[in-house]
Design goal:
heterotetramer, A mainly alpha, B alpha+beta, C alpha/beta, D mainly alpha, B: alpha+beta, 16 helices, globular, D: mainly alpha, MetI-like fold, 0% strand, binds adenosine-5'-triphosphate, binds magnesium ion, transmembrane helix (chain D), BPD_transp_1_N (chain D)
């Protein structure tokens, strides 16, 4: 055997190598994405911009989003208030800037929590199958059978207006969707040859789920997450529009639209700017989802 | 239904001169309302929508005067089903003489005459049903029908608000068949009122026709009355603009502004809202047990600017709502006792040991619509200016009304009070240590005595002085709930709507006088 | 003709200068390994390429009409009427939502105007012509209601609908079982002689070429390397690639003790084509010139061309091909013939195992029947021995493999490994046992997790069984890679960076990681190109020699099984019908099914006139197998007794067992 | 197939049961209840409160209430509104047609818009038209339908001085008015759905166009139109139908907001109104009906699979 010249440093070095490999693969993927998915790239940049705006909101927004300028109620866009002011004299631009925080917060929190729970449920359901699967699936079906916004309405209206309640409602909606994908993928992966190969060398369930299941279902999950992000942002806005979402004085875009609907004619800027911000962000996530789908589709990539 | 949709030229009639002041009969009056009742049963529901509809169909024993010369806030009790009434010397026996009136011609009542027994059964029903309305008759010891046309109420003790209570919107008189269960009161209404309920399509519209046997000769003038449910404010305004609706409820100054631009003939009625926003504080929680803190809160609020910018006009309110006219403190006094003085507020806070203010939460519900939420935001900003950092907590209505507020589970809150129509209600239910709506932990023995005393004084002027004194005392020594403002409701009407003289009590009792000039 | 594809990564030239001609009534075959451009050529003729592909230059002349320059409308009129196509996979080539009748009639409708009734009659007639029983009723069936062979008949019927002059058949039999393949080849030949249609046959199977073709075009990496009549080609291939191709295929007569000849390396990717002669990196005769200059097509006899510098009449290079080897190094390795000598230890003993998959149906998922995938199979494998398991698709071969390793639980029966009964073992012991039996899978693409590096893939069994971790694992994986002929440097690569043959080596390395005694190879070489297949077969043999491994070698390819196995078990419908050593089986098979199977294998020798036993019908469904002898429905020698009495597997002569009433005592 | 449908129905019932239980329990677990809501300010006595509880049937344990409710529901009795005392079935039958009509109209609209555009996009794939249609359809997916509704309403009112006639009228009463009332919200809903139909049709047709049997059809000499509409589209329909089935959930959800903007007395606004008044039986029934609608649509979708795809029909 030839492992005589094995030195003790090797593991460290090796881990390093492996990281590098993954990193280069990741870098390659990024390059390929940039090359092939121009629209996706623009979407990412836009989302990135919004994230930046959200993080740097205090530096970007000229005013405190809840600060009431009692001299300027419903002021039309002007030099001081570039997007005008609302019915309490608050600066619309600042509110939109801060509002990005809420949309992103609700989006991220919902998507991440529901992915985690969805993965747990979906894995159990998909890997073990049988009666466990049967029971879980029926519960998921029951949740899915209630139209999403109706369920959100029901839960949010019961719990009262608060960001965390919106998130709870949306998480309940999204869980079955992720669970279903994960379950489907797990069932598909469970039948693949490489899992059979892994089982034939004696790997146990945990190993199969973690080493084979998860990494191979990331693609559809990422795509789904991106699209769910858009859906979630719209759902939050819809709930806030109905007055059961994010409570005032938080500058949620949906809430801004809800308050603005009565000023459609007298102060259209109150309707146009938040609506535009909302649509653009959702558009970016949807386009990103599409681009990711194209990018990750093995049929399309060589 | 009438076909007047989409005809825009109609909203700008070329001659709007009052051609005739002689009322014309006929026509359909269409009104757009944001919501309709859950139930039509007027004793089980305190919602304004139920009582508006009840007002078309039912009558009370006595009611309030309306008309061109009567102020919106004048509470003049006038005959309704009772032609006249006598009060005994000691003020404990009230005898009502019923007029000749007939029930609507619908099954199972079929237009029979109103008898004293109807009144007695109705009153028993009011007392026996759970709910706020029972309290209105709590001082009644016994009732008796002397004959078909005479009803006698005997009170436990002299009780000044009694007649006013009898004019209260809960006191709609039903036929005894309804009380016996022969009529489904939740979906149907058979009364003596000016209009007959033809059809109620839940959440779509209610249609009423003229009652030909109404006891006031020649009234009502309208042939038909349609109440359309249009939840969206914008849609209501649009409906008005396009002539699909003859009247819509109150709209904001901005909305009015744009509306009068496109429909310059629009008549705008401005009336005082029948209730007020008030800030209430939980006196069992620190630091709100401190009078100075409560006073500071009161002084921090810029009431007049608030009501002007959010509601487009209104006035500083008092412990008794100004819509109760003579019972409320005069405006100057209200303003003087509740000055806007942020510096003073800061000083008071410092005195109370909070030179740098404190953090708290301000509870509000969105169940009353978004204007109140705006008020809450305004007040929060005002409080912030004096150092009180109040985070707004928006609570869902059912939780608010059945858990948070009654259980006094909050720091500060802002809300509307029910539309009380008696100073006794405004004061006693809220501020007596045993008041049914004392959800603020107020317990002031001195105040309790005054509140008990006031309701025994039969002489109106004397009683008013006492009510004023109580209000002054409250504004000086209790400062809870803190009255904020009462706003002017501006509601547009089409130019051809005549004789629209509403009253601040519930029930649209003026509709019998309305006529259309077109 | 040149055909290019516009792809995301640039333009790919799939076909580069392919020329050939077909005369009336002639069959021209185009052969080559996967990806060499056969299908693209075929599709280019009728301009049926996907929108990304187009014929960039060259001409396709059909009766003097240039198809490449025709308007779309004109070529549409030729499609189906003058030139028809048959595609490889009958499963996916018919529209699943229309009846077969509808699809046949559609063709006729496009080109001829007839009445409704005439259409129907024509369709029925066509179905009869292609030998579909009960045509009148079958015409209303949907494709999914037919078996693979029947569908291929329907495809042929569609192609014949308008009596075309030329049929382009792209791998018409590849997806079919050998016995069905034999049927379809017979049919095509028969129809051709009847109708005089010319056939352009695309295939990778030299056996099929020898049987069917008059002339052959050999393609490599998008270029024709040789063209010749079939007799000449098989007699003496001129191009080194053709030669190597022929030698690397195991045939029934191939000597089992010798290594197969292989072509080194892999078929190049179209994106990185070698300079000069495209075959030079794999060619044993490659010279400097081959590297830099592309050879022209040399005429080397009547109607015969070859694209190799060796054949340049101007060069003085000795053009005799050493008939001996392409890869010389290991020429002198000989494998032992595994006698069934007594001293061999019994390793695996399978007794009467059964696997019935329940078929559930109805509201409550009641079990209404069973797929008798494996229905009482017994066999044994001795230390160091290779047992081949052959049979047609769906007969239960893979299921046997899975049962043996315990990947699925058996319904009944026993599996003993090294003397221990597997079902009696607890989990711990089972895990220990499992590492001594390893699996090599058919599809080298799907059996490797695309998101793991080679290190992790091969390292997985090491970790699972606690053999090695961290640095040890790294080292050991490196060794394993070298054992299977890969480089240590590949350790951090991902599967997609390897070719099919290399992936299969990785799969084998993974199987070897736990130092097993028995490898179960389920179609381990079926998905590989012939040149690579030979490499893997050699590797397996080498490993056996070195490590004393035993193999259960599952395959439907009789040639391969014959080459690699010491003994062969023939399976039919979940049962073993005959077991004997491989030589005996091919010389004196006893069971009628074995005989038919062997005779159905196309022989890559155009001069041979094999006596073929064409079986009727198709393999019955394992959920509803025939009574008695399961084979009696197709057996040419079926007797009355076969219908109700099931024959038992009996030893006919030493080491030769068979289950057939022909050899029973009664 | 029949057996399959029966099984689906049984699943459906199980799913509805779980759903009802979920709603039932959640609603009663959160703060606020009808009785206190009705009596909070009245100073009502304990007995009066208990009496009202008993009258409304709220004095029993939750499982018992659930049991009663289910027993009633099976017999078609969904209980009474806790506020109006009106039978819930009546309330629902008043409201259901509105939502149903809205949903059906928008599905039809969405199909009429979505499928042709999707096919065009697929056939012209990777051309300018395709890119344009794709981006537009993603755009359609990204615009919140309530925003669209608001803008449509305002623009029409300002520019044409036209608003949908007030006071909902059913199709049977007055089809013209009904159409005027329904068309705008239906368009708002349809835009989102048609956007996803475009995407799905496009990718499904593209995929089918790459399949082998399309090559067979082409090799027969079939016209491109036949290839696309007879073969490619028909084979893509399964995925498009599946999508519609799944998207119906979003569609039904969207009805809530649009019903409120367009003043339509549908089921969505009913839930909105009754959740906050804690009118349990009405909310339960309304959510149940929504769930049942969703399941029904998906059952129809399953049946349609059989119609579209004989492989499913025969299994
Ligand atoms: N649509 C396409 N786009 C890009 N490249 C393609 C396309 N179709 C085929 N090719 C490439 O063209 C080459 C020739 O393919 P072709 O299908 O003709 O091979 P083949 O000889 O028929 O192989 P097989 O035996 O596997 O069928 C392959 O390398 C393939 O990758
Ligand atoms: N999990 C399963 N459930 C039900 N039936 C199965 C299952 N696995 C295999 N079968 C059936 O069992 C029979 C034998 O399958 P198996 O895969 O063993 O055949 P095979 O001989 O390996 O065929 P091939 O040559 O196509 O690989 C087939 O009819 C198959 O449909
Ligand atoms: Mg091919
Ligand atoms: Mg197999």
């Amino acid at each position: 055997m030839s492992q005589v010249h094995l030195d003790s440093e090797l593991p460290v070095k090796k881990v390093h190598i492996r990281k590098n490999i993954r990193l280069t693969k990741f870098k390659d993927d990024c390059k390929r994405f940039i090359r092939t998915q121009k629209i996706g790239l623009v979407s990412i940049l836009f989302i990135f911009l919004v994230v930046l705006v959200a993080i740097l909101a205090p530096m970007i927004a000229p005013f405190d989003p809840v600060d009431q300028n009692r001299e300027a109620f419903l002021a039309a866009p002007n030099a001081q208030h570039v997007m005008g002011t609302d019915d309490l004299g608050r600066d619309v631009f600042s509110r939109i800037v801060y509002g990005s925080r809420i949309s992103l917060l609700v989006g991220f929190a919902t998507v991440i929590i529901s992915i985690i729970i969805g993965i747990l449920i979906g894995m159990v359901s998909g890997y073990f199958g049988g009666i466990v699967d049967m029971v879980i699936q029926r519960i998921m079906d029951a949740i899915m059978a209630i139209p999403a916004l109706i369920l959100a309405l029901f839960i949010a209206a019961l719990l009262g207006p608060a960001i965390q309640n919106v998130i709870i409602a949306l998480v309940i909606i999204e869980i079955p969707r992720f669970a279903r994908i994960v379950r489907g993928e797990m069932m598909r992966i469970r039948e693949t040859n490489f899992v059979e190969a892994s089982r034939s060398v004696g790997a146990n369930a945990l190993r199969i789920i973690m080493r084979h299941g998860l990494p191979n279902m990331m693609a559809p999950i990422i795509v789904m997450a991106s699209l769910a992000f858009g859906q979630t942002i719209i759902a939050e806005a819809s709930l806030s529009f109905l007055g059961i979402g994010t409570p005032p004085p938080n500058p949620s875009w949906g809430l801004m639209l809800s308050n603005a609907s009565r000023y459609m004619e007298s102060a259209p800027w109150l309707v146009i700017f938040p609506g535009l911000a909302l649509s653009l962000l959702v558009l970016a996530f949807n386009l990103l989802g599409d681009a990711l789908r194209d990018f990750l589709d093995p049929k399309l990539s060589s | 239904s009438e076909d007047n949709g989409g005809n825009s030229s109609e909203s700008q009639p070329s001659n709007d001169e009052e051609g005739s002041s002689e009322p014309k009969h006929g026509g359909t009056f269409t009104m757009a309302t944001p919501a309709d009742p859950d139930t039509l049963d007027p004793h089980r529901q305190s919602s304004i929508y139920t009582h508006q509809m009840a007002g078309f169909v039912y009558n009370k024993l006595v009611t309030y005067e309306t008309g061109p010369d009567v102020e919106y806030t004048d509470y003049n009790v006038v005959p309704d089903l009772a032609e006249s009434w006598d009060i005994s010397e000691d003020g404990t026996v009230y005898t009502f003489h019923l007029r000749e009136a007939y029930w609507h011609d619908k099954e199972p009542v079929n237009g029979r005459q109103v008898v004293a027994e109807d009144v007695i059964s109705t009153m028993e029903r009011i007392i026996n049903l759970p709910g706020h309305q029972a309290a209105l008759l709590s001082e009644v010891e016994s009732m008796e029908a002397l004959d078909d046309k005479t009803v006698v109420f005997t009170l436990k003790q002299p009780f000044a608000p009694f007649l006013n209570f009898m004019a209260n919107h809960f006191m709609w008189i039903l036929p005894k068949e309804a009380i016996d269960g022969e009529i489904d009161l939740s979906t149907d209404a058979i009364g003596t009122g000016p209009f007959v309920l033809e059809e109620w399509e839940d959440n779509v519209q209610a249609t009423y026709s003229r009652n030909p046997n109404f006891f006031e000769e020649g009234k009502p003038y309208l042939d038909e009355l349609i109440y359309k449910v249009v939840p969206d404010q914008g849609a209501r305004i649009a409906a008005f603009r396009t002539g699909q609706s003859d009247a819509i409820g109150g709209i904001s100054p901005e909305e009015l502004n744009t509306l009068t631009k496109s429909n310059p003939d629009t008549i705008v009625k401005e009336v005082l809202f029948a209730t007020q926003e008030q800030v209430f504080v939980n006196m069992e929680r620190e630091p709100f047990d401190d009078l100075n803190v409560r006073k500071a809160i009161s002084m921090a609020i810029d009431r007049q600017s608030m009501v002007d910018s959010i509601y487009g006009g209104g006035e500083v309110s008092g412990p008794v709502n100004p819509s109760l006219g003579k019972w409320a403190l005069p405006l100057e006094e209200r303003e003087q006792l509740q000055p806007y003085d942020p510096e003073g507020a800061k000083a008071l806070l410092a005195e109370a040991g909070f030179p740098n203010g404190f953090d708290t939460t301000l509870m509000v519900t969105d169940g009353y619509g978004e204007q109140l939420v705006r008020v809450a935001q305004w007040i929060a900003e005002d409080l912030r200016n004096v150092g009180i950092n109040a985070e707004i907590e928006v609570v869902e209505y059912a939780t608010y009304f059945s858990e948070k507020w009654p259980n006094v589970d909050y720091d500060i809150g802002v809300g509307y009070q029910t539309y009380f129509q008696e100073p006794d209600e405004w004061l006693r239910t809220q501020m007596h240590s045993e008041g049914t709506r004392n959800w603020f932990n107020i317990s002031d023995p001195e105040l309790d005595v005054m509140l008990d005393e006031q309701r025994m004084i039969i002489d109106e002027d004397e009683r008013r002085e006492m009510v004023y004194d109580i209000q002054r005392y409250v504004l000086e020594n209790v400062v809870n709930p803190i009255p904020v403002s009462t706003y002017y409701v501006q509601s547009p009407q089409q130019p051809y709507v005549k004789n629209w003289e509403p009253h601040s009590s519930y029930g649209y009792i003026h509709m019998k006088d309305v006529w259309l000039d077109r | 003709m040149r055909t290019v594809f516009q792809t995301r990564t640039g333009t790919v030239e799939a076909v580069n200068g392919i020329s050939f001609s077909i005369s009336k009534g002639e069959t021209v075959a185009i052969v080559g390994e996967s990806g060499s451009g056969k299908s693209v050529s075929a599709l280019s003729i009728l301009r049926l390429l996907e929108s990304s592909g187009r014929v960039s230059s060259g001409k396709v002349l059909f009766n003097d009409l240039n198809l490449t320059e025709m308007k779309d409308e004109e070529i549409r009129k030729i499609r189906g009427k003058d030139i028809a196509m048959i595609f490889q996979d009958p499963m996916t080539c018919l529209d699943p939502v229309y009846t077969i009748g509808n699809q046949i009639i559609e063709t006729i409708k496009i080109h001829e105007d007839l009445s409704k009734k005439e259409y129907l009659e024509r369709a029925v007639e066509l179905l009869r012509l292609v030998g579909l029983p009960d045509a009148e009723n079958r015409i209303h069936s949907y494709p999914h209601q037919l078996s693979g062979g029947q569908r291929q008949r329907v495809m042929i019927a569609i192609a014949l609908a308008c009596r075309p002059n030329l049929i382009i058949a792209d791998e018409p039999t590849t997806a079919l079982d050998v016995t069905v393949q034999a049927q379809i080849m017979e049919l095509l030949k028969e129809l051709q002689s009847k109708l005089g249609t010319a056939i352009f046959l695309v295939t990778h199977d030299l056996g099929v070429v020898a049987e069917m073709a008059d002339r052959v075009v050999v393609v490599y990496a998008g270029q024709v390397v040789e063209q010749s009549s079939v007799i000449d080609l098989f007699e003496k291939p001129e191009h080194p690639y053709t030669e190597a191709l022929m030698k690397s295929i195991p045939r029934i007569e191939t000597d089992r003790t010798k290594r197969l000849q292989t072509i080194k390396g892999n078929v190049p990717s179209l994106k990185e084509l070698p300079s000069g002669c495209r075959f030079h990196p794999r060619c044993p005769f490659a010279t400097e010139k081959c590297r830099s200059e592309e050879p022209p097509l040399f005429n080397v006899g009547e109607n015969r061309i070859s694209k190799c510098w060796l054949l340049d009449p101007e060069s003085k290079v000795e053009m005799t091909l050493p008939s001996a080897t392409v890869e010389k190094v290991d020429e002198n390795i000989y494998y032992d013939l595994n006698d069934q000598s007594e001293d061999k230890e019994l390793l695996l003993d399978v007794k009467e195992i059964k696997k019935h998959f329940p078929i559930t149906k109805g509201v409550l998922s009641r079990t209404v029947g069973h797929v008798r995938a494996v229905d009482g199979v017994s066999f044994d494998i001795y230390q160091g021995e290779t047992l081949g398991l052959v049979g047609e698709s769906g007969c239960g071969k893979s299921t046997v493999g899975r049962l043996v390793t315990g990947l699925i639980d058996s319904t009944d029966g026993q599996v003993s490994f090294d003397g221990k009964e597997l079902t009696s073992l607890n989990r711990q012991a089972m895990k220990k046992m499992r590492k001594r039996m390893q699996f090599v899978f058919q599809d080298p693409y799907s059996s490797l997790n695309p998101r793991m590096t080679v290190l992790d893939i091969i390292g997985e069994p090491l970790e699972v069984h606690g053999f090695a971790k961290g640095a040890d694992k790294y080292e050991r994986v490196g060794e394993l890679l070298e054992i299977v002929g890969l480089s240590k440097n590949d350790i951090q690569k991902f599967p997609h960076e390897f070719s099919g043959g290399q992936r299969q080596r990785i799969g084998i390395a993974r199987a070897l990681a736990t130092e097993p005694d028995l490898l179960i190879c389920d179609e381990a070489v079926s998905a590989l190109d012939v040149s690579v297949q030979a490499q893997i077969l050699n590797l397996l043999k080498d490993l056996q020699l070195k490590m004393g491994l035993s193999y259960l070698f599952i395959s439907h390819d009789l040639n391969v099984v014959k080459y690699i196995s010491d003994r062969i078990a023939v399976m039919y419908l979940g049962e073993i019908v005959e077991v004997t050593d491989s030589e005996t089986l091919f010389q004196e098979a006893l069971h009628p099914y074995s005989k038919a199977l062997i005779s159905a294998v196309p022989v890559p020798d155009p001069t041979a006139e094999p006596e073929r036993i064409i079986l009727k019908g198709e393999v019955p469904s394992p959920s509803n197998p025939p009574t008695g002898c399961k084979f009696h429905t197709r057996c040419p020698m079926a007797m009355e007794i076969c219908k109700h009495k099931k024959p038992l597997l009996k030893e006919h002569s030493s080491g030769h067992t068979v289950s057939c009433h022909l050899y029973g005592e009664e | 197939m029949a057996e399959y449908i029966i099984r689906r129905l049984i699943y459906g019932v199980i799913v509805l049961f779980i759903m009802v239980t979920f709603i039932f329990v959640v609603m009663r677990a959160v703060p606020g209840d009808v009785v206190t809501l009705q009596l909070a300010d009245s100073g009502a006595s304990e007995e009066q409160i208990e009496a009202l509880e008993a009258e409304l049937g709220l004095d029993k344990s939750i499982p018992a209430q659930l049991g009663d409710w289910i027993v009633g529901a099976v017999q078609g009795d969904l209980g009474m509104s806790l506020w109006s005392g009106q039978p819930v079935t009546e309330v629902i039958t008043e409201r259901l047609p509105v939502t149903l009509q809205l949903a059906i109209m928008s599905i039809i609209l969405a199909i009429l818009i979505g499928i042709p555009i999707g096919v065009i996009s697929a056939v012209k794939h990777n051309t300018f038209i395709d890119h344009f249609l794709r981006i537009t359809s993603v755009g359609g997916l990204s615009i919140p339908n309530f925003w669209l509704g608001l803008i449509l309403l305002t623009v029409l009112a300002l520019v044409l001085n036209w608003i949908p006639p007030l006071g909902y009228q059913s199709f049977l009463e007055n089809p013209i008015v009904n159409f005027q009332q329904m068309i705008l919200p239906a368009i708002c809903l349809a835009i989102t759905l048609s956007a996803s139909i475009v995407r799905m049709t496009r990718s499904a047709v593209l995929e089918v166009l790459h399949s082998e049997f399309i090559r067979t059809v082409r090799s027969k000499g079939a016209k491109e139109r036949v290839v696309i509409y007879k073969h490619a589209l028909r084979n893509s329909l399964v995925s498009v139908i599946t999508l519609i089935g799944l998207q119906v959930g979003y569609l039904l959800g969207g009805t809530v907001v649009l019903e409120s903007i367009f003043s339509l007395p549908g089921l969505g606004s009913l839930i909105f109104e009754t959740v906050s008044s804690r009118d349990y039986p009405v909310v339960q029934a309304a959510v149940l009906i929504f769930g049942a609608m969703f399941l029904l649509v998906n059952l129809i979708v399953d049946v349609m699979y059989g119609w579209v795809d004989p492989r499913i029909r025969n299994s």
